[in-house]
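[retry 2/3] IS5 family transposase: previous attempt timed out, resubmitting with same input.
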Amino acid sequence: MIKTSLFADQEREAKLNKLGDALQVMEQHVDFAALAEEVDRAAPRPSRERGGRPPFPTELMVRLLLIQQLFNLSDEQMEFQLLDRLSFQRFVGLRSSSQIPDRTTIWTFKERLIQAGASESIFETVNRQLSKHGYIARGGQMVDASIVQAPKQSLSKTETALLKDNAMPIEWKPAKRRQKDMEARWTKKHGKSYFGYKVSANADKRYKLVRRIKVSTASEHDTLHFEEVLDPANTNRNILADKGYVDGEREELLSKQGWRMHIQRKGSKDKPISAAQERRNNRIAKTRARIEHVFAGMAQLGGKALRTIGLARATLQLNWKVAAYNLRRLVYLKEAGIEAF
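[retry 2/3] IS5 family transposase: success.
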């Protein structure tokens, strides 16, 4: 016979605490009120002059979006999980509430950030908190890029040609236009085709925390955003990157600016690399591989695919995804006792 109890909710919550709730551990190390304050500054809350139901607190929505990124949930799944999952309700502060943000509320909050040009605000704010904990960028920086796939489009050759010219078929109705990604592009990597966007990232060697990112279409070459993701705040001037970033002029210019360039060399069919260059490549690879750990961590959070349409929403999604990765990494560093120095 199944035992019933008037205190079942409290007993389950106590057992959850005993087993270990990762979200409660995160709460010990992250100042969510400060994150919400910065989001409100970058994207002010809508005016209440016309009345209507007041919006949910920004801190609650920030917590909600971070959960969404940590567990790779769609807006619809997020709504269901908030209704169903004790740990989520407790983390966002809705344990005793009869109201929860629904899928439309979540979408509206994201649109508020996009319209205010505040897509990067959470990533920048999280990084300021990392610095407050003492985890400043150290040991040099690793630069790389990763393709993030978007939902593939079913288009005719004529429609594809029009989209390449930034035009749209006149027969498309508004409802169809909303479902077509006009900005995602195709690219090839290792002989395989991908459709979507690309995130270029800079991670520091010491802590494997992401310091800068740039979101672009998948067809844009990695090298176009190399300087944009360099982090001048890193305490070490070493830059490590793979063969895709070879550019003699850039390397010479950055070397004159005081950077120490460690970019792997690539050969060709007619001119293979020398044994010395091969050894150099291997030395660089041993350290540069640490950024692959970063991308693997983001992949675990669902950072290799998008449910969104358009570059603006991809930028918002990936900034929150990387912010979630950095917060999870911060918790690991703190709980593992890895001191900031």
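[retry 2/3] IS5 family transposase: The first strand starts at residue 141 and ends at 149.
[retry 2/3] clearing retry counter.
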